[in-house]
Amino acid sequence: MLINPYKDSESSAISLMDIISGVKERGLDMPVLLRFENLLDSQISFLNNSFNEAIKKLNYKGEYRGVYPIKVNQQQQVIEEVTKFGQRYHHGLEVGSKAELVAALSLMKDKEACLICNGYKDEEFVDLGLYAVKMGYKCFFVIEIPGELDIVLERSQALGIQPNIGIRIKLSAKAGGHWTESGGDRSIFGLNVSQAITMVDTLKEKKMLDSLKLLHYHLGSQIPNIRDIRSAVLEATRVYAELVNEGAPMGYLDLGGGLAVDYDGSNTNYTNSRNYNVEEYCTDIVEAVMSILDPSGIQHPVIVTESGRAVVAYYSVLLFNVLDVEKFQEYDIPDKLDDNTSEQIKNLYDAKKNINLKNIQECYNDVLYYRDEIREMFKHGRISLRERSLSEKIFWNTISQIAKEKLKLKNPPPDLEDIESAIADIYYCNFSVFQSIPDSWAIDQLFPIMPVHRLLELPKRNAVIADITCDCDGKIDRFIDLHDVRNTLPLHEMKNGDDYYLGVFLVGAYQETLGDLHNLFGDTNVVSVRIYPDGNFDFVNEIHGDSVADVLSYVEFDPKDMLVSFREKAEEAIRDGLISASDRREIMKAYDNGLRGYTYYER
Ligand SMILES: *Cc1c(COP(=O)(O)O)cnc(C)c1O
């Protein structure tokens, strides 16, 4: 498994296993989140170059100015790198809250880049944005709800700074995908057409219409179908044209986010994919804008997009090790049953003996029926534990055989859809779904997951993945398949105590900060890697994950107090003659080590 940020050069590809050795040598434990600087850099370039090429090809007269929405990955390092790598394209930032604005202002350097302020804005927020304007930054206030305009106008008058005002509209166009509800008439943010006209009238009345410079909409994230993107651009550009006709200077058309990532690689309009590529996305947008504006001779605006997911998803890879495996047990069953075996077990056994390709559904129904009946009988004391054990062995042996037969069928019965996961191995892995890939749990998002080594060996086990939280939702049993979704992942057999590493890819967008402290598993170790064109790499930054004391302090424990109160308990145990004074020393050391330790499984 290689990472290669330089598309044209093969010598720069580096192996994830080399990175893992480097991580181990530095004494960092799994799980580790890798961030590849170069991948962020190349995604920003790719997006900007694609827009610039479409602009050139279609002879568009405006420019493209991307902004990165901070909420997608707010880590200081990420925003710093976005502003650094984005500078040559004047790639700016989008903020949705006061905290994000404060963060953006500390890192923005480029006065040509846009700083777009979405979200509810109070006086403090507005004042800060106005000062940014005064300092020469291209800072826009996007009005999301009608009431916001008053604050912006009032504060700009008070401070004597002319604002750049944008207007967020609700489109009637709706997009498919998980975030359908962000767009459409009933979306929670944005002004409807009548409210927009009222706003224009207010601005005219107050002689402030020359502040209205930007039109914005956001259809939702991960839009899988290019047709939805296109129809939204067309509708929004119509509104843009009308605002120009109303006399607003305008100049900026901000199409929000939505550029999808092809998580499952299917290149379809399925939720986890997209039926277009970045070049098509850019061309379609530029073309659609021109098709509306050119007939009425309206000047081409600066096109702004707020792509977050597509810019940062590729940036991060989560690595973890497998701690243990619970293998699906293949039981041997006798060739023949004793004559005195109870009738139901004999029935179960016969069902098993009669399996063939034609009757697997029937056989499946039968063995389920007999198994349940035998369990009932056990409850009522009519068969022994030993007999029940025999029946369970026959049952699982049959299920495993049905699963094998099923593979031979082109159109297996729908009832047998999940049968593989019933007989899958469970691979217990050193990570938390809730902390590191929350969208896998929350919205059934698929991520590419695979072993990062032993890739020339056929993986012979079928597995589901369990994390180390003790939550029954802390598992992954939906994986990418050629068609649709599969319930198990082919993995290699664990070799006598050797480490086995899996990687989860495309986790750079949304996962890090949406992740939470379920079962008090904290932030993982993070290593930033820089790859050079000759195939060498550096660890440019290492951030140690949360210690146990860190996560406890997030939930208001005070590690110092905890040490004191535990020491009192140890003292009491000495008084009661349970431990010696030197035991106390060892015990306190263990407690202290516990507080300092990584929250994950340490070797
Ligand atoms: C979340 C959000 C984005 C980012 O969308 P992606 O699909 O991740 O590119 C952009 N703009 C606004 C207003 C958002 O709320």
Q: Give the termini distance in whole angstroms.
A: 24 Å
Helix vs. strand class: alpha/beta
Radius of gyration based on Cα positions: 30 Å
CATH superfamily heading of the domain at 92-311: Alanine racemase
Reported for the largest beta sheet, the result is: 10 strands, mixed
The fold-level CATH name of the domain at 92-311 is TIM Barrel
What's the CATH C level of the domain at 92-311? Alpha Beta
Q: Which blocks of ≥5 consecutive residues have pLDDT under 50?
A: none
The number of distinct β-strands equals 22
Bound molecules: pyridoxal-5'-phosphate
- What coarse outline follows from CA principal-axis ratios? globular
SS field, number of helical segments:
20
- Architecture per CATH nomenclature, i.e. the level-2 architecture of the domain at 92-311: Alpha-Beta Barrel
Mean pLDDT across residues: 94
Q: Kindly estimate the percentage of residues that lie in beta strands according to DSSP.
A: 15-25%
Helix content: 25-40%
Structural write-up:
This protein is α/β, with parallel strands linked by helices and about 600 residues long. The chain contains 20 helices and 22 strands. The strands form four sheets. Strands 3, 12, 13, 14, 15, 16, 19, 20, 21 and 22 form a ten-stranded mixed beta sheet that branches. An eight-stranded parallel barrel has the order 4-5-6-7-8-9-10-11, surrounded by seven helices. It is globular and about 100 Å long. The relative contact order is 0.12. It binds pyridoxal-5'-phosphate.
